[in-house]
Write a structure and sequence with these properties.
The complex is a heterodimer of chains A (about 325) and B (about 325).
Chain A (H helix, E strand, L loop, with lengths): L5 H9 L8 H6 L3 H14 L8 H10 L17 H13 L8 H9 L18 H13 L8 H10 L17 H13 L8 H9 L20 H11 L8 H10 L8 E2 L6 E2 H13 L16 H10 L7
Antiparallel strand pairs in A: 1-2
Chain B lengths: L3 H9 L31 H16 L4 H13 L4 H14 L3 H10 L6 H11 L4 H14 L4 H14 L5 H11 L4 H13 L6 H18 L4 H9 L5 H6 L1 H13 L4 H12 L6 H10 L11 H12 L4 H13 L2
The chains are: A mainly alpha (about 325), B mainly alpha (about 325).
Chain lengths: ~325, ~325
């Protein structure tokens, strides 16, 4: 079996600004906050977070905050819950959550909950279970889950459960590994995993593994490295990860590396990007690949970061 | 993804600073901070368009020229929430005919404009129904499993109606690709939600026939087997006792090809009380290697052994299933 080219991936992430005129660069502008989360979390998992300038990043993040308390994808961009979570997660990596006006951020996020318990992504109202996860994860990291109606949030997620045991973006939506991660993660954080038929969902999830060892996100779709995260973290949260063939999955992820230039792609021999680099490394961490920090499957942050938030100091108890 | 026609547009593109109607505007450059975290190199046209957008956005100018500027910005980068957001504010301020707006968003059809469409559709009401269904159909004709197109289509059906042709649309898609999991999911969505059909129980007989044909023709199709199971939601008794289901399993097993799902379905049936006759036992025996798979008189255990062998990537799962059988009453 090959090896993880850790040094190359670190170089790739640190040098991504040197890519001129790449399509990825052009469209990344509005979601730079997500890109920062993917890149920096990967660096932390590889033990190289110290390679970046914390103060510069923190001051940039603060500039991305909107009057409403939410964060945009970049400076001057409108707030959305997607970027708000990434901002909070990056600050958590650096143990800089105290730069936040926690009341302000959590009020923004909590304000996106609808009457039926669902969450909108922003003021324009799009509803998706992804936003349920994002809101719950974000508020939990800030110790402010008390600001939302957790019961309604849980019941909305449960209403998105399908007969195959999986979850979609809204009631009736096709089961999809990404949506499943969000729903399972949200239920894990709110202590509501008993709503899941773990055996049924575990089987659906382990059926995502194809002959090459990679994982797809739905039946009859191609495998993609990002599902190494979505499927795997879900399996871990419901305690069924032993149902996939770990060795074959490790091999698949390693085969998706660009060993010359660094970075990881969706499948072998495709172009790499920061998104898939993060999910590949995070997946390997969940598979306990040597040399990587452990990652928390629900919060998608290194375990030591999560411990610091929930155990490390005297903090408000979760409601 | 720039098409060749938009490449031509770029070649003919006139910088804003050369356009007389924009001479009063002072462009606002992007403030990335001193050392960008993920600094990005842009095309000049993109830079300038966004600089002018920023100027109008901060000045909150909701004019027709602002509207056309957002059109340009969106075509350069349809994923930018801020631009779409400001466009909506302008549309409201100008009280533009939103049917034209639907045409615009269709021309720039991308994932991220789906809630823009939804916003428009909600304002237009049921006159938007056929346009929205047509819009999603177009996307699905290019990518029949496009997740966001399907969720938008489901939203339209639930909010605005238009169920009439939905089941036959599913038929069409499944005829093109019987393995399309999204189409099977949509079929279930129609059966269980459409006011035009009688609901799951009423549709069960015809749907079981339909699905049994599918599983026999392509027994390796995970979606069709799951759909079959779903038709008996909350009614395991009917599922276990429907001869069509067990005989479908028998047919597939007899052909000795791609029988993993047939086996797992048979296993589930037995676990829910199905009493297999000798024919089933003989068929499963015929699949096994003489010594390794036979587990005495326990057919369910034999099935698990076969599955461990023929679906080795999930060996741990099948082993667990076998262990659970010992615990069963």
């Amino acid at each position: 079996m090959g090896e993880l080219a850790a040094e190359k991936h670190v170089e790739y992430i640190l040098s991504v600004e040197k890519k001129k005129d790449s399509f990825e660069s052009v469209v990344m502008e509005h979601l730079r906050m997500n890109g920062a989360y993917w890149g920096l979390t990967t660096l932390d998992l590889l033990g190289k977070l110290h390679a970046v300038d914390v103060d510069q990043i923190v001051s940039w993040i603060i500039k991305c905050q909107h009057d409403s308390g939410g964060f945009g994808g970049n400076i001057g961009h409108d707030p959305h819950v997607l970027y708000t979570l990434s901002a909070v997660q990056v600050l958590a990596l650096f143990d800089k959550l105290d730069v936040l006006d926690i009341e302000k951020v959590s009020t923004y996020v909590a304000g996106l909950q609808n009457e039926d318990g669902s969450f909108s992504g922003d003021m324009w109202g799009e509803i998706d279970t992804r936003f349920s996860y994002i809101a719950i994860c974000c508020l939990s990291l800030l110790h402010r889950l008390d600001k939302i109606n957790v019961e309604n949030a849980v019941s909305y997620i449960v209403s998105c459960k399908n007969l195959d045991g999986g979850f979609g973006c809204m009631p009736g939506g096709e089961s999809h590994a990404g949506q499943i991660f969000c729903c399972v993660g949200a239920l894990a954080i709110t202590g509501a995993l008993h709503h899941i038929d773990k055996d049924l969902l575990g089987w659906w999830l382990c059926e995502r593994q194809v002959k090459s060892g990679g994982l797809n996100g739905r039946p009859e779709k191609l495998p993609d490295v990002c599902y190494s995260w979505w499927v795997l973290s879900s399996l871990i949260m419901i305690d069924r990860v032993h149902w996939i063939n770990k060795e074959k999955l490790v091999k698949y992820i390693l085969d998706c590396q660009d060993l010359d230039n660094g970075g990881i792609s969706d499948r072998p021999d495709d172009a790499v990007d920061v998104y898939h680099t993060y999910f590949g490394v995070a997946g390997l961490s969940l598979l306990e690949y040597t040399g990587l920090k452990a990652i928390d499957p629900a919060y998608a942050l290194p375990v030591d970061v999560v411990n610091r938030i929930f155990i490390g100091r005297q903090s408000k108890k979760e409601s | 993804m720039a098409s060749s026609s938009s490449d031509e547009e770029f070649r003919q593109w006139i910088p804003f600073r050369q356009r007389p109607e924009w001479s009063d505007v002072k462009p606002l450059p992007q403030d990335d901070g001193p050392s960008p975290v993920v600094p990005i190199a842009y095309k000049d046209s993109f830079v300038e368009t966004m600089d002018y957008f920023r100027a109008l956005y901060h000045g909150d100018e909701r004019s027709f020229r602002a509207l056309s500027l957002t059109s340009e910005a969106i075509q350069l980068n349809p994923g930018n929430y801020t631009v779409w957001h400001f466009r909506r504010l302008i549309l409201e301020a100008l009280e533009v005919d939103l049917q034209n707006e639907l045409d615009f968003t269709e021309a720039v059809a991308r994932d991220t404009c789906r809630h823009h469409r939804r916003w428009i559709a909600e304002k237009l009401g049921t006159i938007a129904t056929s346009k929205e269904l047509e819009f999603t159909r177009k996307i699905l004709s290019l990518d029949a499993k496009h997740y966001h197109a399907w969720s938008h289509r489901q939203w339209v059906l639930q909010t605005l109606g238009g169920w009439d042709d939905e089941l036959s649309y599913c038929d069409e898609l499944l005829e093109e690709d019987i393995f399309n999991n999204s189409a099977w999911n949509q079929r279930y969505f129609v059966i269980t939600n459409s006011p035009l059909h009688g609901g799951l129980k009423a549709m069960r007989t015809s749907e079981v026939s339909y699905t049994v044909k599918a599983v026999i023709a392509y027994p390796e199709n995970e979606s069709s087997w799951r759909y079959l199971r779903g038709l008996y939601k909350d009614d395991n008794h009917s599922w276990v006792n429907d001869a069509q289901v067990s005989s479908a399993c028998l047919k597939v097993l007899s052909a000795k090809n791609n029988y993993v799902f047939a086996l797992s379905t048979l296993l589930d049936l037995i676990c829910h009380g199905f009493q297999p006759n000798q024919e089933f036992r003989d068929i499963v025996d015929a699949l096994g290697t003489p010594d390794s798979d036979r587990q005495g008189s326990d057919l369910a255990k034999s099935i698990c052994s076969v599955l461990e062998r023929v679906d080795p990537i999930r060996a741990n799962y099948w082993r667990w299933r076998r262990s659970k059988l010992s615990q069963a009453v």
